[in-house]
Amino acid sequence: MADSTADVVIIGGGIAGCATAYNLAKLNVKVVIVEKGNIGDEQSGRAWGFVRQQGRDPVEMPMMIACNKIWQGLSQELNADLEWVQGGNLALAKDGESIQRFEESVAISRQFGLDTRLLSRDEVRKLIPSMEGSFIGGMYTPGDGHAEPIKTTTAFARAAQEHGAEIYTGCAAEGIEITGGKVSAVITERGIIRTPVVVCAAGAWSSKIGRMAGLSLPQRVVRATVAETHPVPPVTQIGVWAPGVSFRQRPNGSFYIAGGGGSDYDVNLDTFRHLRLFLPNYLKNRGLFRIRVGGELVKDIGRRLPGSPARKHPFAHSVGVEPRPNPKTVQRTLKNFVEQFPSLSSIGIKRVWAGRIDATPDAVPVLGAVDKPEGFLFATGFSGHGFAMGPIVGIIMSQLIVNGESEFDIHPMRYNRFKEGDLAKPRNVL
After folding, report:
1. Strand locations in 99-190, DSSP E?
2. Stretch (H or E) spanning 376
3. Which one of 117, 197, 245, 327 counts the least CB within 10 Å of its CB?
4. pLDDT at 75
């Protein structure tokens, strides 16, 4: 790639970046995506595939309700099979405390006109008769659904290219040039792209991209393990969050199962940044994480040493490197799944993988422009909800860039809220 120019450069080829490029390209904006690996290589191709309005933070609710409507027609819009299934989303309660939390969530949902219901155990069993686990009730949103992450992300990328967007894979951003307080270029490993606007949609790598522009984004990254089973006859179209396991059945009959025992957090040098901001939500949800101290910290120290290749090529160590799945998590997840469905006790695992989920201190995204440098915008920090929110994020970012404002209130998602101490209240993450 020779040195070039663009109206907008998007860093990151996940669903947020590709959806933003698609919506900008439709408006005849000259947009370029730079991606260090391939499209959907990171979490946008590794997500569980849930698309839910249920259980959202109130500031996200209007966006996600609008996004759900987009999902219903997205396969037709992108002319692609996204495996979209609008079977609803069901969260199961194991005790009275869970029921109380669901009651609070239902009350919030109803404020926004969302059809979310509390169900008794018998009502849950009517929805999924073969499920026999130890739950006492549930929370159900019939309008929710699920889709296949890598198919959706690549469909957005193809559609963006068809409208004129350029996509450079195997092309990491290695620097951001700022002139007179304004973004002026993105320096990549294959050349310089002159541009007045940069969108950071880099997921787990967003804090590192932000530092290239002099910004300090509070971010943590957890390693989540997922397994796909061998296909079985149809059981349910509902996406389910049960005690110790979450699952959905694909149209081909296989199940994606995850969540058994929570996610792994690998301590690194960034662990000590913004520690105070992360403590409230961590304490509220500490049962969802297992902290690992060891190899990743040592490697990170090595990458920061003077003369390290990572100083010049900060993302080279991550390209083509698979996050490590946790085999114990797979065992626990499968055990918990079979407890829900004893009739599937002989089900086998087809494949296993892991992904990096990025999170902010309040588990709310960071969307929009920063004060300085002018022309730099974030579309990141989705805290496990990026795949579901991707289509509406693309619209919001294009509105901000082209019109200077969005139809949605994204003030609670601004970058400056961390400095101002104006974070969403700590809450239990479903």
Report:
1. 117-120, 137-141, 145-146, 166-169, 173-179, 182-188
2. strand 376-380
3. 327
4. 98
The model carries a pTM of: 0.92
Q: How many domains does the chain have?
A: 1
**Cβ count within 10 A of residue 291:** 12
Domain of 165 in residue numbering reads as 4-420
Mean pLDDT of 272-278: 71
Per residue in 329-373, pLDDT tens? 999 999 999 999 999 999 999 999 999 999 999 999 999 999 999
Q: What pLDDT is attached to residue 272?
A: 66
Spatial contact of 270 and 278, defined as CB atoms under 8 Å apart: no
Tokens 């919506």: give the residue: 23
Q: Which residues of 70-100 are buried (b: 16+ CB within 10 A; e: fewer)?
A: bbeebbeebebebbbbebbbbbbbeeeebbe
Looking at the DSSP assignment, which residues form a beta bridge with residue 246? 241, 258
Q: What is the pLDDT of residues 116-153, one digit of tens each?
A: 999 999 999 999 999 998 899 999 999 999 999 999 99
Q: How far apart are CA 399 and CA 163, in angstroms?
A: 17
- Residue 28 covered by a domain: yes
Helix (H) or strand (E) holding 150: helix 149-162
**pLDDT for 370-390, tens place per residue?**
999 999 999 999 998 999 999
Instruction: List the CATH number of the domain containing 101.
Output: 3.50.50.60
Please provide the distance, in angstroms rounded to a whole number, between the alpha carbons at the two ends of the chain. Answer: 44
Both structure tokens of 77: 């819009």
